[in-house]
Write a structure and sequence with these properties.
Number of domains: 1
Number of strands: 8
Helix content: 40-55%
CATH architecture: 3-Layer(aba) Sandwich
Order of helices and strands: EHEEHEEHEHEHHHEHH
Strand order of the largest sheet: 1-8
CATH superfamily: NAD(P)-binding Rossmann-like Domain
Distance between the termini: 25 Å
């Protein structure tokens, strides 16, 4: 995830400053330092791959999941974050392929790697596509930080999201140049197709 970068509005490459200001971000940075500690791991060949927000047939605790679940169940539902801010999302099958491509490179180890998503897209555009695909007509309510905090009193998933809401407001894009230069073309399924496949798969296994 991108939590290690903290509250920075930018397009970040693998060398972007890591300035976490949240509990989750600080823990992620501690994990990263541990993973790359050569004194602890004499024979291991570690690497870290970093993803933006994700969605897909196997997704469970993504920011988009409550919206997807509501659409599939034809109920009024929520969207986590600002509807106007374009954000980067990655389709999990695309991410899996790119992770494998990185892992197959002998010189990829000991480094951070960005797994880039598709073109940034706003919540409003996502909702329009979901309605187009499913003919869903119920209300989708955008949740701000205060509303998330109140819901978190009763819902552990929402409680965890509260301190991360800055991401949904400002957005942060992962630079993909390193992947393109050293691995190959970015794998990027069209967002509408990816959302259609996600809704279709999850619809067969309704929540």
């Amino acid at each position: 995830g991108i939590y290690v970068y903290g509250h920075q509005s930018a397009i970040g490459d693998e060398n972007h400053p890591k300035l976490p200001h949240t509990k989750k971000g600080k823990i992620r940075l501690q994990f990263e330092n541990l993973i790359f500690d050569s004194n602890k791991w004499k024979k291991a060949k570690p690497l870290i791959v970093r993803l933006p927000d994700y969605f897909g047939p196997s997704s469970q605790n993504s920011y988009l999941q409550p919206t997807i679940n509501g659409v599939l169940n034809d109920k009024n539902t929520i969207f986590i974050g600002n509807l106007k801010t374009p954000r980067e999302y990655i389709y999990l099958p695309d991410a899996a392929k790119m992770i494998v491509n990185i892992a197959e490179k002998d010189d990829a180890y000991g480094e951070n790697w960005n797994i880039p998503g598709g073109n940034p897209i706003s919540g409003k555009e996502i909702i329009q596509l979901a309605r187009k695909i499913t003919q869903y007509k119920k209300a989708i309510i955008p949740l701000n930080k205060t509303m998330i905090f109140l819901m978190g009193i009763f819902n552990p998933f929402m409680r965890e999201i509260t301190e991360m809401m800055y991401i949904t407001k400002d957005g942060f894009i992962l630079n993909n140049q390193k992947y393109k230069d050293r691995v190959g073309p970015i794998i990027k399924t069209d967002f509408e197709q990816a959302l259609n496949e996600t809704l279709s798969h999850n619809g067969k296994n309704k929540v």
